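Researcher: Re-running this chain for the archive, since the previous output was lost when a drive failed. Same request as before.
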Amino acid sequence: MKFLPYFFLLCCGLWSTISFADEDYIEYRGISSNNRVTLDPVRLSNKELRWLASKKNLVIAVHKSQTATLLHTDSQQQVRGINADYLNLLKRALNIKLTLREYADHQKAMDALAEGEVDIVLSHLVTSPPLNSDIAATKPLIITFPALVTTLHDSMRPLTSPKPVNIARVANYPP
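Model: Regenerated structure tokens:
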């Protein structure tokens, strides 16, 4: 009889791991950013402002197939990198809470969007527009050319130096 509470805790623990094993995504608790950039005001239409006001938490889907080099995760379920900086800018500009869900591929993220499980898919919709005509591809909220200048010693920390620095561009980017 004295083992009953331990048995109950074991069953609860097993049940929780089984229920989370069915999920198609990984949900991240935090977005880390060293970005201290100020952003111009985001211009939204009245319809977009009403939609945003109805949200308490904006759920954003990403997928590794397009963001692997721009979104890094750690063991504490935090994300870092250029996309994390972008999302923090978006969070500050819209003054809203963000939840990030990572899907295995683009199609699973788009399926979650179609089902209403997420609000936004962070992807290259300009080059891969949604096949579902009910899903609207909006204009980018933040237009920028991401650049991460780092050192080989620590590629996740932005380079800071009081000395002049030469930076090389590749393939005329940005235009």
